[in-house]
Amino acid sequence: xxxxxxxxxxxxxxxxxxxxxxxxxxxxxxxxxxxxxxxxxxxxxxxxxxxxxx
Length: 54
Description:
two-stranded antiparallel ribbon; elongated; alpha+beta
């Protein structure tokens, strides 16, 4: 299967990342919200390669 996505398709994407520790967490998951840019730096992955880096 070929990815036929275009940069214009990617512009419509909105996302948020979460870094949740591997332990019992009783507080709100919003406390673990991070920007996609930060998650990309932490993992060395480019989730939205069709978009320019911010």
